[in-house]
Write a structure and sequence with these properties.
Blueprint (H helix, E strand, L loop, with lengths): L7 H30 L4 H27 L7 H18 L1 H26 L4 H23 L8 H21 L1
Helix pairs in contact: 1-2, 1-3, 1-4, 1-6, 2-5, 3-4, 4-5, 4-6
Length: 177
């Protein structure tokens, strides 16, 4: 039996695909930030801790993609470069810009994961449990970034708005491509 557009299985596959892409992108952003910052700044130690959590999230979704036979996004090579570049550029601007990047990304991920949880309901307990757990950690990342000075960056609203727009586009594209 072939899947038809709108089939519930394809919708679940789309959720897993976009979540894996998002977590992969997050690991690349942090890799870019740490490549620029090294371990010499207090912010780098905070980022390294968040990066470790993102690696765990990505590994979970990598396994889910393999176990469920979900096609990963074809945009992964682009997210590899774009994520690393975003991380490197924000870190080069300074620690507050790196934290502003995290705050912006995690704000959009909170919205995305909240919407997924509403859509999932009780239909896929494995996915909904992971999304709820990871969402809580993403909110911690956002709050940590704000406490670390994200909003002190000159131009924070502009940088945050651009990054959030990019995240929304990445989510929309990764669901389908």
């Amino acid at each position: 039996m072939s899947w038809k557009p709108g089939d519930a299985r394809e919708h679940m596959a789309s959720m897993v695909r976009v979540d894996q892409a998002g977590e992969y992108g997050a690991t690349r952003i942090y890799a870019g930030q740490l490549a620029v910052m090294g371990d010499r700044l207090p912010a780098a130690r905070v980022i390294a801790g968040m990066a470790a959590q993102e690696e765990r999230h990505r590994a979970f979704f990598d396994k889910m993609i393999a176990d469920r036979g979900v096609r990963p996004t074809a945009l992964q090579p682009f997210w590899n470069v774009a994520g690393f570049a975003l991380g490197a550029v924000t870190a080069a601007i300074g620690p507050n810009a790196a934290m502003a990047c995290t705050a912006a990304v995690e704000t959009e991920i909170d919205i995305h994961y909240r919407q997924q949880l509403e859509e999932l309901g009780d239909s896929d307990t494995e996915l909904s449990h992971a999304v709820a757990e990871f969402r809580a950690e993403e909110l911690e990342h956002r709050d940590t970034a704000i406490e670390a000075g994200a909003e002190n960056l000159i131009g924070y609203p502009l940088l945050s708005g651009m990054i959030r727009l990019g995240c929304r586009a990445a989510i929309a594209l990764s669901k389908r491509i």
